[in-house]
Amino acid sequence: MDIFSKIAAGEIPSYKCAENEEFYAFLDINPLVKGHTLVIPRREVDYIFDMDDDEIARYQVFAKKVAKAVKAAFPCKKVAQVVLGLEVPHAHIHLIPMQTEADVDFRREKQKLTEEEFKETAEKIYSEFKKQ
Questions:
Q1: Strand, coil or helix: what is 43?
Q2: Which pLDDT belongs to residue 42?
Q3: Burial of 19 (0-12, 13-18, 19+ CB in 10 A)
Q4: Count of CB atoms within 10 A of residue 66's CB?
Q5: How far apart are CA 100 and CA 41, in angstroms?
Q6: For the chain, what percentages of helix, strand and coil (3-state, to nearest 5) are there?
Q7: What phi and psi values does residue 93 have, to the nearest 5 degrees?
Q8: 85, pLDDT greater than 80
Q9: Closest alpha carbon to 58 in 23, 32, 97, 10
Q10: Is the Cβ–Cβ distance between 19 and 12 less than 8 Å?
Q11: Residue among 36, 90, 92, 94 flagged as catalytic
Q12: How many Å apart are CA 89 and CA 95, to the nearest integer?
């Protein structure tokens, strides 16, 4: 079981932002900006394009709902969707609130949030997600 599967299963703590039976969303622990969220399938699949058409469609619809919650919780021009990363062999979508394209530069220094800031951020997003 990879680290993201363990997070989705509750074996490793995370800052939950949304979930259903197939997908799980949680805060990136090295965020580019406040509200930077990861969306994963609960099923272990390394590469997003290895998902079958119906599953990837449901994944995108779930990510869209999470993105709307992120935007409501952290007003921004848009929420960027980025599929990037080789460190964890589990498909994941980054949802990043952005005011400018510079907010989505993965080479820039990551934000340092306190435990309380992470909790408040996740709660704001989850609260907005549940309104949908």
A1: coil
A2: 96
A3: middle
A4: 27
A5: 28
A6: 40, 20, 45
A7: -110, 130
A8: no
A9: 23
A10: no
A11: 92
A12: 18
- Backbone phi, psi, residue 83, to 5°: -110, 105
With cut-offs at 50, 70 and 90, classify the pLDDT of residue 48.
Answer: very high
Coil, strand, or helix at residue 65?
Answer: helix
pLDDT for residue 86: 82
Q: Which two tokens stand for residue 129?
A: 């997600």
Residue 39 backbone dihedrals phi, psi, to 5 degrees? -120, 125
The pTM of the full predicted model, rounded to 2 decimals, is 0.95
Task: Map tokens 């949030």 to a residue.
Answer: 113
Task: Indicate if 92 belongs to the active site.
Answer: yes
Distance CA 26, CA 3 (A): 13
> Would you call 117 exposed, middle or buried from its count of C-beta atoms within 10 A (0-12, 13-18, 19+)?
middle
